[in-house]
Amino acid sequence: MPGVSDSRWAAQDTTPAEIESALRHMLVERHAENESFSPARVLNMVCVVDKAWSGEVANRLRNVGRYHASRTVVLAVDPKRDKLDAVATTASDVHPKAGEFALLRETVIVDVGEKHLQALDTIVDPLVVTDLPTVLWSPHGHPEALDVLLPLAQVVLLDSVDEPDLHEALERAEELARKAYVVDLAWLRSTPWRERVAATFDPSHLRPDLRTISSVTIRHHPDSTAAALLLIGWLASRLDWQPSKLIARNGGLVGKAHARRQDVELRVDPEPSQSVRGLAGLTLETASGRHLELDRGAGGLRAKYRNRKGDLREWTVLGASRGEAGILGEGIRQALLRDPTYSPALLVANQLVP
Amino acid sequence: MTAVATATADNPLIEGLERLPIHPTTLVIFGATGDLARRKLLPALYNLAHEGALPERFHLVGVSRADHSHEDFRAEAEEAIKQFSRREPESAVLEKLLEEVRYVPGTFDDPSVFETLEGALDEFDKAAGLRLNRCFYLSTAPAFFPVIVKQLGDRALHRLDDAEVRIVIEKPFGTTLAEAEQLNREVLSVFDEHQVFRIDHYLGKETVQNMMAFRFANGLFEPVWNRNYIDSVQITAAEDLGIGSRAGYYDSAGALRDLIQNHMLQLLCHVAMEPPVHFEADEVRNEKVKVLQAIHAPTPADVPNIAARAQYTDGESGGEHVSGYLQEEGVAPDSNTETYAALRLEVDNWRWAGVPFYLRTGKRLARKVTEVAITLKPVPHLAFSQEGSLGVKPNQLILTMQPNEGVSLSLGAKIPGTRMRIRPVYMEFLYGTSFLSQSPEAYERLITDAMRGDATLFTRNDEVEAQWRICDPIVQVWESTPGPIPQYEAGSMGPAEADQLLINGNHWRAI
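Above: the input entities. Below: the structure tokens describing the complete assembly.
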């Protein structure tokens, strides 16, 4: 990623050892130039991308704000290539000032061919910083590359809403979650919604009502069914519901989950007017007569709540939209944390797929 | 540091969430048009709103003497947020945050102000259809703290049957032990201790919380963290700047009250405390109070031996000629207020007996640095010749809070060459290189903790009084000793008088 202060190395027909050596030399040079330059040492990120679309991925990574990995290794797959070409940069966003340090981030772009995919681990292993957690991201597919690289990584970043086939998306996420910690951007898109539902039922007098939820409707961007199913999966896994497969009806999906006290009606509806990926709204109803609606609005989520007596209240739950870049940045940040509730939610979401 | 919630039997939905729910709350800021509110509190509220970290329902009421309407205050708050927020405000979020803000003008001793305030609070409750928690934030001159507390009590705003009422009190919490005790009595005659959140914003800084993580999440240091291995501890909070526009406050406070009585004693507590069983408010604070109680309050005769003070004179700072303290605008020409204070304290307990703890703070020193330096005892026998080298120095562990948060460990290493010559080298760790997240402003953390009712990062009544018990005798001796007081040149390392506090061959670290 270009920064305020960059140094660059490039080579054709190179080797991982040469690239690694170049990175070390660049760090030594930068430190000698000004000892305030210090390499970031948080996270390795290994991205497998199509060479033709590598610019788009670079753009996405450039916009993640402060959540850059410390060393990013981009493997740009150019099917016919049989030699490795590489460009390595060390960049800092600031010029160091007296008494302060300037963080250096390293980016390596390696052009690889189809023939390298089966042995990508031998290319990547020398390039990642030892002992740092490594996150894998393969936004253009290449599952075979991901499988080869998995033993080197602790975390896989994916976006279940990227896959056109819902079943395949959630199956693949489940398979990966058995081998590594998965950060699913589709899951992160539901975070503000999960926080708000949790907050709604947090007052002690409302907690018993969690057991009386009788219907859940999720509205979503037409491409984001996975995010909607993960949200239902979360509710079901946290509240011990036993869901059955949803069925397609009137353009959406409907179904039921069996809860301890009553069945819960489930509904997932695409919202064509929503321009950004993710969720558009949710409605929860309880057998006790409460009704909660959350929808995207200016300055946050617009909440509507009707109590048992029928009194309606409306307010805004404050919060800025994170945007796609913000979601990706959050995904990188989450690679260093652990959320134990994703996997159970994913298992249920998978069971819901028609 | 954001804590990931652990499982709770009560609300099964909070497991895995980074942000735990906070009950719907109305926050009332007394002194809402003041400098602290403008620079810190309102921007902190915006940033919390931006991140979705405020309670699901949140209302703000400003109370101040300025004769403003709701709209005036809204405009003033908007301007303050735009000017001082750490991020560019997003207009939709800012507009929603301030949309229903209320402002109550008047003096704090006027019962009608509290009647109007009660009306605004009830109005918010009614609109929400539930009782909102109330959090009163006292961001006024200290003289008004008891006045506001009394009025809240008289109006019965200090307690609700079906929601929580909390009060946040800014520093300084008294300017003497007697005042702190009196203020505690007045506050606790209305509120219960668990409702009271005494701010020391230092405790909200990631750096201070990291000291606990450093000590209690690493097995490496505990075996040497005692009088058997540690020679001395030195805590420094040095500023390169002068008092700026704070003469009104600073000239009546001085360096001891401004930093040592609160922040620096808190740092000392974090170095010296025993590990709490759990990271919970009372357990952490119990351990800190034990440290403070183990420090003997000095007698008047002790004071000259354990405390030094001084004032800066004019000099060169950052390549510029700067004025001395007595020439600063708003400072009395015969002021005896110290701009530098240094103490030598002992924590008289099993772990620390005999280890000097040096504390020093000052304005217009050589550079800005806040650090804790722990010097270990020298090795018992040295097999190497010291000739031709800087020699073997005792290991030092430096925890730096400002300007670059980090940890540095000095080690003896062989100088490359044919001879066995040793010099100190440094193993450096900078927090900024190892985390993706930006540290939140201390006030963001403290405001949410207060609204949530988590008092871990706030000082308890006995803690404040224990801090004053140590500093009060020094204040009394200094105030009763005629001036002029010793001086140090602006831009220097401080006064020579501070050297007299050093024992056992210790020396001040270079600033």
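Note for the figure: Residues 174 and 347 of chain A are 7 Å apart (CA to CA).
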